[in-house]
Every structure is written in structure tokens, then in C-alpha cells.
Amino acid sequence: MMKKILKNIAILAGALLLCTSCLEETPYGTYSNKTFYKTEADAESALMYAYVPLNYIEYCGRFLFYLGDVTTNQYKSYGKADESPCFQWEIQPTSDEVLYFWKTAYISLARANSVIDNVSAMTGISESSKSKILGEAHFLRAFNHFMLVINYGSVPLREHTVESVSDSYKDFASIQQLYGFIIAELETAIGLLPVEKMQGRADKVAAQALLSRVYLYMASAKASGAPGYEWVGDAEEAYSLAAEYASDVLNGQSTYSLDPDLGNIYDVEHQADGPEHIFITSMNREASGMEGTYSQLPQMFCIQISDYVYVSKSLNPGPGTPEVMKVLNDPSTYQVMRVDNEFMDTYDDNDLRKQLMVTTIYNEDGSVLATYDPSNISSSDNIKNKFFYPFCRKYTDPLSNANRCSANIYLIRMGEVALNYAEAAGPTEEGYKWVNAVRARAGLDPLPEGLSIEDFREAVIQERVKELAFEGHGLYDLRRLNRADEEHITNKTFHPTYAYFFPVPQRESDLNPQE
Amino acid sequence: MSKTRFFLLLLPLFLFSHPAYSQDMTVSGTISGDPDGQPVAGASVMIKGSMTGVISDGNGQYSINTGRDDILVFSCLGFKDVEIKVGQQAIINVTLPVDAQMLEEVISVGYGTMRKSDLTGSVASVKAAEVIQSASASIDKMLQGRIAGLTIIDNTNDSPEASVTVRVRGISSINGSNAPLIVVDGVPMGDAGNLTSVNPNIIESIEVLKDASATAIYGSRGANGVIMITTKSGTQEHTNFWFNGKVGVGVFSEKLDYWRDPVMMARLENESYENGGAEGPYTGKVWSDGTYYPSISEIESGEWPFRTDWADYVFRTAVTQDYNVGVEGSSEKSKYYASLGYYSGQGMQYNDDYQKISMDMSYDNKVLDNFNLRTKAGFVRGFRNYNNGTSYARNPLWPVYNGDGSYFKAYEQDYGNTAMINNEVKKESDNMSGYATLGFDWQIIEGLKLSATGNVRGEQSRSAFFNPPEYTLAGDNYDGEGGTSESTYANITTDAYLTYNKTIKQHAFSVMVGGSYENSTSRGSSITGRGFSNSSLQEEVVSGAETVLTATSRSQQMLASAFTRLNYTLKDRYLFTFTARADGSSKFAEGHRWGFFPSGAVSWKLSEEPWIKQLNFFDQLKIRASYGLSGNQGISPYQTFESYGYDYYWSGGEEYTVYGIGYQDGREGSVNQYVTYAGMANYDLTWEKTSQFDVGLDMSIFDGRLSLTLDYYFKKTTDLLRKQYLAPSTGFDTVWVNDGEINNKGFEISLTGHIISTKDWNFSATGIFNLNRNKVVAIGTTEDSGFTTDPNGICFTQYGGGIYNDAFINVLAIGYPVNSFYGYMVNGIIQTPQGDGTSKNTRPGELNYVGLRDDGTLDPSARQIIGDPNPDFTASLNLSVSHSTGLDLSVLLYAVYGNDIFSFRKLSAPGLMAGRWTAEAPNNERPSLRYDRQYHASSWSVEDGSYLRVSNITLGYTLPENTIRGIKHLRIYASASNPFTFSKVSEYDPEVGENGIGNVAYPKVCTITGGIELKF
Predict the structure, then answer these.
(1) For B781-816, what is each residue's pLDDT tens digit?
(2) Pairing, β B123-127 against β B53-55
(3) CB contacts, 8 Å: A281 with chain B
(4) Which residues in chain A touch residue B1, judged by CB atoms under 8 angstroms apart?
(5) Using one digit for the tens of pLDDT, what is the confidence trace for A435-481?
């Protein structure tokens, strides 16, 4: 009898199960894949959401500088409290920089993957918009994987949105696989994207420029015997591809060009229209969100004197009382990116780029308030003892909305592409032309004629260090040139363990363990 | 699925049990009651040893199909049972003798009722009349100490809305809800704790379902226990009009502790700065924030003339009023009940008010002999005014007003002037809620009944605020800020179930099978304006603001269920119950939506055994055992989907609000500087499951004068819903998963003795004892939970927020109870300097931390478990005495023992500050005063939170019946709630939240209530 009862209950339960459609959840009030990606604006919105993490302080907005530049001779600690363990190369798998740089690159990747997974299947969108959105998403996948591989080496390659806990376990891809993927993504992006300059967005030229950097890294790493690049088949072939893509940027379009005025590059008012900027972030002082939608970059560099800091408006002010400007429109700064004065001393006095390291600050009326001197560090004067290093003025915003600045990160610019080309092409006529163009802008004479290919490349590399200082390239250039060692990193205690590849974050190793 | 199909599916169930023995005659008659011989309505007539029976009608008449050999058992609440053998009689008239002791209660068990003596599970009940002797906006608060196994924590001070924390048998979920499910008249209403939508005065009885056998019928929502509330319906045979009124006056149960001697205050404040190596503020100078602090001599001499007793501006004598009128009655075919209530509650602080008007009505009509129609509807309108956080601890040296009548501000951004906040800042809300229930009971054939109920509930609430410039920080920041928000909630609950009773000789069966469906939708919108050029209309004209921010929300959840209960009784002494529920929740993904929650119980009525009966000692003796599963689905909807977030992005000189996968979910890292992201889909998400084993004993001896209920339980909750960390290469930080285990075990004793029972005097006592032991057994692996294993081997993770500058104090530690305190041990006060004396932390007068290094820093690895806020046991004693003149007195004592609390007032309370360490008068108890001392989560602040409270004293007088013509019932009474508390804590009151964190703002409120009950 009990059996019969249970049987009938089973029938009843079965009948009820038939009506499970009444339990189908409609995600009201919250967007999800079910309700999004209906319109072109949706696709555009999701794509911009994928760009957002690039601005975060955990990624390009700050940690790129810590990992990429602070670890080199550009900065030193001066025995002051350090914002980042990178000042002492005390980098651990648990360091914030290691974890959050990694995490944020993958956040951008997850969003870019979601765009590619969903937009490809959209119908209510024009083909040209679809190509452009997909092209940018492919660019972002390449950019993020490139940032990961140059920092960590072998990492998981994420081509799709992770949709379950089991998906979260993934074998790390080899450096070769990652480069292969990055190249393919950039080629796809080049095929899909138009040339269309817009601040905060990548276009065809950005993809070409990044690809020239990718090939240059491969070529020089192979040629120099840098660890991790043994798989590169032929350095020369990679050099020629680097030159080819750089040439596409230098000669194949007219939207971007070397800005003849060095100061213009770093003028916050010309980030959007300056011809130099191929891919620049778009943080804005009027933004609504948290830091990352606006920037606090000037504060990181500028000294803290509890008052507005004025510098000369022009990089080359000439004699007399200069016209001055605020570094930012806020008296409060952090003063953590402390430029090594010996690094400044490597610049020729005629080099205009030396003026990007501030050694004189002014009062509002243009009279001198204080000048930098190495002995300031032990001064009892409350302003002087803050001015113990020459601070970088590549990031300024005189019109900042208090602490909210529009200063942005120069992720890809023409100067780099010119130097990519020169280094890749070697001492050819074109090679000389582009390195000398960069030098001329800085007020320097051309390189001597007739240099050997080694000497020429070395000269270009030195030019690159000076041109791209404080822009997040330092350590990555050292690594690809097999120079991440005590000989080239001299102003800090160097711990070689993670010289070429930063450690995989502990949380990743714990939660996605590799054999 | 149509009802017909539903029924057809069920038909086969009942065909097999067609009567196969003789129910060959009909017996009818009239049941009347002693002493007046009035007909008794609602008496049950059962065939002995079966579950077949009928109920007498309004005239006490009944009719039943029976056999000649059967024995009929006549029973009714308040009367002794009478058994009569049928034999040849076709008409049996019975007079039931009164029995005040042996009330055979019928209690609500979810989709049906049962005689209390037939229960196999653990169910405790209380009559509302016993607990509503004071005025309260909701019933929850008044249940403290009344029911074994039910814990009420009332730490919200004196909120006029009376929300409390309610737990049945401990904490069993770390992220889901721990509150029991409230079911009102069969309709699940959600979490217990703030049931303001039900007027306590219309509640008839409260049952608490505790073990799995009882709760499994509520399946996925039963894991935290179920509180069944039955409201009144017209059960009186005559029409009664009734009125009850209560007026309460709230006063503090102890004196407020604030600075009444400003000179002493200023001296100690200066001392605390001097001990920190700085000049104190009371030196007649302008402080860095712009405040002028008078010097001590200025204060002493009266040159600084101001003295303000801020408590006068903050507190009042709180008056609570509760009036209800109603009518109830019944006729042969119908019964009805209607009431109207008005409640007005005041918090101790000015502007902290709550008023509500409630209307409830029910009407049941037997439209056919075998078809009863039930209707019920009600409406509540509530108004709430919020106090905006005024402080009586404001500096007594500040005046209230400046000479020109404007509010005194000590400095530009001083927004703490109580009078200013009370008069100028607006925060209020109001709500409306209504419900309607339509149902029927259809006696299809003898023994087979179909009950179906549909209930709709709607709620609408609105809140408004305005922060004017000059008087509020937000107002100054935004040049006036104000807004409104509105939300609506709609719920539809339907259920239908068939009950079939059948007795075959010594075998009695009862089968219930049914289904239910619930659908709830919430919508909300808010509008906030900033920058009001004209503040006079405040938030009423938000469109006048410079910036207008809007937000809207919507969510929906559904639950479909099938359930069944089988009762089998053998020889009226061996009872078996099997229940099962299948729940399908929209919150989970397909494939994981349905949960199956079965339970089984056995019970043996030993007192029915001849060999026990021979002893002639036990009136009732029953042992029970049960085991079963229930669930918890206490997470928000849409957690299984991928979820989108938003951010802002500038593109082409324009800002866009952009959306995409992944949203900001929380923060982590030192000073919480890093955002964490969630939003990954997890289609594997499912219910938390609680399995519970319970054994119990029900006993009654000495003619029911002494009764005892004992229960032991072991409750194991697995598949805990918790957030797990994901590999950062996923692009997400956390995701909800099912992992981990928490155990609760304990026992409950409920002992009632009618100690004196004479013609003139009655004295009875009920003691309740609850003991619960909680333990975190597992919560995932070290890595994916973000666990820390300390050098002492304690594996823990932060649970809840931080205190002082420490990120946390409560932890989930493997092997320890939920919410255990984690921190430093302190061995008294440092008496001789340690180290080289350069650090302020190592000087005499400082706390002597274990792990204090010579440089003044603390060694984090010295931390350990320093306390447990879970009590060893709670107990209550309810004494009541009554006299034949009509006087009655009852006292309720409530005790909590063996819990720790974290006290913030150990040094900061003005009354305790004088006992500080000084070089002249050193001690080992309280450190010196030092303004810049960083406190930590340490054992120094941990105190024994045990207490004994006199919860309620009620003195009443009931006018003997028929004293005044036309008055059926008149009772007047006075009660005092929380008049006395005995405890050793430095906090005002030991009854702090479940996590044991103190900081009780002011003393417990004692409410003196006067009330009248009138029926005519």
C-alpha cells in the first residue's frame, strides 16, 4: 500500500515538475546576457566597460609604473617610506602589485571576451560598427595578454568568459602560445579596424603600433638571449616584421605624426588632439566614478609642500620671470614616484627631455620658491626638505577638479613607434631618419653616421630609455634585452628571483594550481 | 495545470482504501457542557483508535457514521473527554465535564492541524493572550522567554517598530538568513523579526516548529525553524463586542551616564592629551578645527557661562498607545471577526515615532453542508518618523543657541547640535500594506477534504529625507540634498491540499498531499536632488534641484512546491509521521532548482500502554524521535546568472555610463583599498541543507499539575551558501558556492507546574531552559575561502566588520562557534616601563598586551580566540498567581548565561573614567587616559555578558462574571517591562546583538503599561 502511495506521489510530483516553466527566472532590474547586447549602443557600452580597467590604479593607472619603472634606475627610495615594495625589489607572490595587476588585466579580458562572445552573434547592428567593436575587443585581448606575458611569462590564456567554477581551472599557456595568440589577435584587429583617432579608444594604427612592439620584443629577446624567448625562430625575421608594422604607422597614415613640440605631448589640454597619441587613456577630472575614471597621477609624482606647486609653463622658459602653472589644482599630493637624480644626470644638458624633471618650483608670481638640490633631504626648511628629488612633470593638470585630474597614461605614442622602427630596421637611412627625428625634437644633434648595427641599436635603446622614461616601459625593455640584472639595475637592492618574470600571484597558484 | 487534472491525479490515492468494514450506522446527538448545559460548538467526536471524526455544529449537534462496536470519544477544549460505546444507540447526547487542566489543544502544523497529544515532532506553542500584556508594534519582541528553543535578542533599544533578532536552535547559516520563517494563517510571510504587518492583538496562538519532522513541510525554508501564527476568528457562539486599550510609559531603567561636571570632564580631557604628549584643548584657545575651548579656570569661574543638559533635548518620556476594538461571533453557518487597531509608539528620542492603523476581518461561511468558504482581509497603514542620530553626550559646555537665536555650532562643520538636528533635518517614511485571502474546505466524501487557499499581499512604502545646508554635512556639500524613494512589493501565494482520514480497526491513517506556488515581485525607485536654490519645499520639488539622481530596481522570485504528510497510528499509541516537500525555486539554475526535503518521526504514547496505565501515575507519557532534511534558500535572486555592473567612461569628450559583465561586489586588502568583482554565472548553485535529529519526551503527571517536555537535537547544516574566491585569472573575485558545514546541538526543557490549585488560589510556574552549542566544522579550503591559519593552528576567516582600527573581531574559526572573538590577550596594565620607553604604548598605564613588542608594536601572531558571544544557556521562569477575587499577578524572569560581550564603554563611559590609571593611583583594571591611544580587539574589552532580567511583571484584576449587567469580561491590569536587570557589564545593557559587539547607546527602557480589556 505504501508503495502505491509513493507511486501516486511520484506522479503528482512529476506533474508539478512539468510546470517548471513557472520558475524560469527573468532577471528584472539587472542586465545580463539575456537582456543585453540588443542594440549597437549596448555593444559599444560593453566594449567601453572593457577599457575601464586599464585606467585603474591596480593596472596601468599606477601599478604599471611600480612594476615597470620603479624597479629600474629611473626611481629610487631615498630611504623614505616606500609606497611599493618594487623600490627594493622585495616582490612576493602575495605582493599587491603582483596580484592586482594580474587580476585587473584579466578583468579587462573577461569583459573583452564577453564582447567578442556576444557581439559576433548580434544582428541588430551595422556591419561597420560590428567590425569596429570586435576589432577593438580583439585589440584589448592582445593588449591585456601582452601586459601579462611581459610581466609574468607563462599565464592562462583566456579566450572566453569564464562561466563556471570548473572553467576557472586552466592550464597556463606557454610564452610562445601567448605571443602567437597576441599576434593573431592584433592581425585580426588590424583587419577589422579603421583609422579613427579617439581618446580612450584603440584603432587600426594602435594595433599596428602594438604589433611592432610585440615583434621588437620577440626579436631583441631572441637576439640577446633573454630568458623565455628561446622559441623565437629567427630574430631577423621578427626585426623585419617589427619594422614593417612600425613603418605602416609611420608612413601608412596621416592622422598621427611625431608632435614637433615636446611640451605638447605632456600638455593635458592636448591629449585628445595631439598627433603623437596613438593610444592614451581617457580619465577625466569631471568624471563621475571612483579613481580610475579620473586620475591622481600628478599627485604621485609631484612633491608635497602643503600648498600648490607651481612650475614654469614652458619646458624651455628662457631668462627672466617665467610664466608658471600649477602641477595640479590641489595642494595635496603623495610624492611617491621619486625620480633618481642620477638618472636625471644621464640626460645631456641640452636635452629638452631633461626639463621634464623639475628642479625649480615657483611662487604664483613666477619668483623662485625653491630649487632642487641633493642636500635638501636633510634641510630643516619645510619646503626644501620635500624637494629632495627632481620630480617628473609628464603628468600634470593645472585645472584639476581638486584631486581629480585629467592626466592620462601614454600607452602607445608616435615617439615609441619611431624608435621601434629604428631599432628594428637598424642603421638604414630610414632608421637614422626616425631616431634622429626623435632626437631633434628633444633639441639634440643627429646620431653619428656610419654606426655598426650593434652600436646603432644600442644608441636607439639609450634614446628609448630617455624618451619613454616614466611611461611604463623601463623594466620590460631591460628584460627583452637580457639586462634585468645587477649591472643595469644599480640603485636598489636587486633580488634576481623575479628579474625576468614576476611571480604568479599566490591566489592564482592556490586556486588554479598547475602540475 | 488545471485543478481538475490535479484532482484526477490524486483520485487513485483514495480508491484502494475503500471502506472494507462496517461503518453501518449513523449516530447523532447534542453535546452540551457543564455546568450550564449550554450546547458546545466545535467539539470533536472521534471514533476511538481512528482518525475519523466530526465536529459539532453551532448548536452542539453532531452526526457520525460508525459501527456498533466503536467507542466514540467526545472532546472539546476546556472539557474532559467522554467515551461512550455506541452499541445500539442511534442518538447519544453527552454532557462534557469541565476540565481546566486537560486542555486538549489542537495546533497548527502547516497545511493542517493536529491534536497536541498526537504530535510526533517538536512543536512548542503559546497563547497570544499570555504575552501581549504590553504594547508593541509586533509580536516577535514579546516572545522572549516564552517558548523553549526560541531565542529573541532585543538589542534595538527602543525602536518603536520593535524589530528583534529571532533564532530557533542556533545559527546555522553564515551568509543566508538565520531567521525562522513566519507563517501567518498558513501564508508564509518571510523572515521573523519585524512582523509589523500583523497586529499582535488579533493573534490567537503562536506555534514554533523546531525539529525536522515539523519543519520539513516548509522544505527549503524550514531550516531555521518555522513560527506559525494563527489569528483570531469568530469562535464565540454569541456576538461579542470587545475593546482593549493599553497605554505605556517608557523610562530608562538606569541613570544616564554623561558629564554633569564639566570641570571634571575638561580636566580629564586635558589629562588625556598631556598623557599623549600634547597640550589639552581646555586651555582657552581656538582648536585646529576652529572650536574655542574655554580654559578650566574660565569654566570654574563661570566666565564661560554655558551648561547644557543635552539629554533634555534628546530624550523624552516615551508614550506608547495601543487601542483595539472589534466584534466577533458565530452562527450556525458562519463565523466572523473584525477589528480595528491603532498603535502609536514613541522611541525615547524625540522624533522617533511610529504610528499604524490596522484593520482585519474574517468571515467564514458554510455555503453548503460540506463546503466552507473562508475569507480574510486586512490593511495596515504605518507612519514612521526617524530621529537623525542625536547625541546626549555632546559637550555640556556648548550652548544650544547663539545670542541671536541661531543654532550654536562649535565650528564650521559641527552638525551635532541636537536641537538643530531635531528641528531642521527631515527623515520620514510611510507604508501601506494589505492582504486578502480566499479559501475553502470541501468535505468531498467522508474523510476526504480538499482545502485550497489563495492569498495576495501588497506593500507600498515611501521614504523622504531632506538635509538642509548649514545644518548637515550633506546639505553643505551639495547645497541642500533631499529625495524620496518608493518601493512596492506584491506577493501571490496559492496552495491546495487534500486530506484523507481512514481508520481500519487499530490502524488509523491520515494522508495529506498538496501543492503551492508563490510569486513575489519588488520594484523600487528613488530620486535624490542636490543643490536646492530654495529649500522651502524640500524634497517635495526635487525637480528644482541642480542635480537629480534617479535609480530604479525590480526583482522577482518564484517558488513552486509539492508536499505530503502521512500519519499512521497503531492502537492509538504508536505514531508514525512521514512528510516530504519538493521545492522549486527560481533563484537557482535549471537542474538545481528542485530540492527534496523528507522527514520521518516515530512516537510512542507510553501512557496508553496498559502496564503504564496500571501505575496510575502518568497522565501523559510520550517519547518521540525524528530525523529529516530542510533547506535554506536565503540568497538574493539572480545569483546564478552572470551579472552586469556599470562604470563611467569618457570617449570622444563625452562621459558614458557603461555596462558589462562583472560588478563591484566589495572591497579587500589593507584599508579596503581594492575593489572585488563578482558576477560570474554559477549554474551549480543550490540550497543549503540542514539535517536534524531530535529525540523528545512529553510527560504529564499528578492530574496534569506537572508537565514536562524535553528535547535533544543535533542539527547539521551542509552546503553552506558562501562566497568563494576564484582564481584571479577568471576576471572575477568571488562567486556564491555551496560548501562548508555548521553544527548545532543542544537541549530544551520546558517544565510547568500548577503548584497550588485550590478554590481560591492558583499558583503556577513555567520554567524554560535552552542550551545550544554551535560549531563551525568546515568552510571550504584554506585558499578558496581566504582562510588564515595562525601560528597557534587556528584556522579562521573574518566574519563581519571591524572595530577600532582592526579589520575584524568576529571570526568563523574551524572548531569554534560562529562569531567567536579573535584578538589580543591583555594582562592588566603596565606598571613599570618596558623597552626603552620611546613608544607611548609601553609606558606605565598602558594596556599590557600579550605580544607587545618593546617598540610598542603588537605581534599579530599573538592573537587568539578571546571570547564567545554565544551563551552557554538561556532560561526563563514565568510565575503566575491568581485569586478567586479576580486578582492575578505574573512575573517573567529571563536569564542568559556564559556569553561574552565586547564592551566599548569600559573606559569611555564618564562614570568609569575616574577609575583610570594614574601614576599617583595606579591600578590593574583601567589604563590611563590618552587621547591618541589606538585600541585593539583585545580581551580587556571582553566581559561576561551573563544577565538576569525581570522581563515583565503584570498585576491584573478581572471582574467576576455577571457583576455588571451586559459586561461579559472586564479586566484591568498594569505591567512593567524590563524593570530590573542584574549584570556585570560596563555597557548600559548586556543584551547586545548576536555578534556580541557592545556600544549600547543608552539604558534599557522600562515600560510601565496600564491596560483594560472589555467584552460586552
Answers:
(1) 766 666 778 888 888 888 887 788 777 899 999 999
(2) unpaired
(3) none
(4) 15-16, 18-19
(5) 999 999 999 999 999 999 999 999 999 999 999 999 999 999 999 99
Picking from B967, B41, B909, the residue whose alpha carbon sits closest to that of residue B393 is B909
Per-residue pLDDT band at A31 (split at 50, 70, 90): confident
Q: Does residue B83 or residue B527 have the better pLDDT?
A: B527
Query: In the predicted model, what is the mean pLDDT of chain B?
Result: 87
- Residue identified by cell 517614511 is B429
Beta pairing class for B181-184 and B226-231: parallel
**Nearest-CA residue of chain A relative to B9?**
A12
The CA distance from B403 to A287, in Å, is 44
pTM, rounded to two decimals: 0.78
Q: Cell numbers for B227, please give them.
A: 513560527
Cell representation of residue A247: 613603418
Residue type, B881: V
Strand B71-75 to B887-897 pairing: unpaired
Structural domains in chain A, CATH included, are 2-21+40-234+502-509 (1.25.40.390), 283-407 (no CATH)
Reading the block at residue B327, the C-alpha cell is: 466584534
What residues in B contact A286, CB-CB < 8 Å?
655
pLDDT at A268: 95
Question: What is chain B's percent helix, strand, coil content, to nearest 5?
Answer: 10, 50, 40
Largest CA distance in chain B: 105
How long is chain A? 515
Helix A235-251 vs helix A414-425: angle between axes, to the nearest 10 degrees?
140
Cell match 580629564: residue? B268
Of residues B555, B674, B735, nearest to A165 (C-beta): B735
B614 contact partners, CB below 8 Å, separation of at least 6:
none
A-B contacts at Cβ under 8 angstroms: 245
A110 touches chain B (CB under 8 A): yes
User: Residue B103 pLDDT > 50, yes or no?
Assistant: no
Report residue B925 as a C-alpha cell.
583594571
- ipTM reported for the complex surpasses 0.90: yes
pLDDT band at residue B13 using 50, 70 and 90 as cut-offs: very low
Q: How far apart are CA B792 and CA B811, in angstroms?
A: 15
Residue in the block written with cell 491584573: B956
Closest CA to B169 of B132, B211, B197: B211
pLDDT cut 70: percent of chain B above it: 95
> Which pLDDT band holds residue B19 (cuts at 50, 70, 90)?
very low
Judged by CB atoms closer than 8 Å, whether chains meet at B552 and A29 is answered as yes
Name the amino acid, one letter, at B587. K
- Around Cβ A402, how many Cβ atoms within 10 Å? 12
Burial class of residue A88, CB neighbours in 10 A (0-12, 13-18, 19+): middle
Are the beta carbons of B882 and B875 closer than 8 angstroms? no
The CA distance from A421 to A423, in Å, is 6
The answer to whether B722 touches B785, Cβ cutoff 8 Å, is yes
Contact B124, B148 (CB under 8 A): yes
Q: Closest Cα to residue B188, out of B733, B498, B565, B633?
A: B633
The band of A243, judged by pLDDT with boundaries at 50, 70 and 90, is very high
| pLDDT value at B16 more than 50 | no
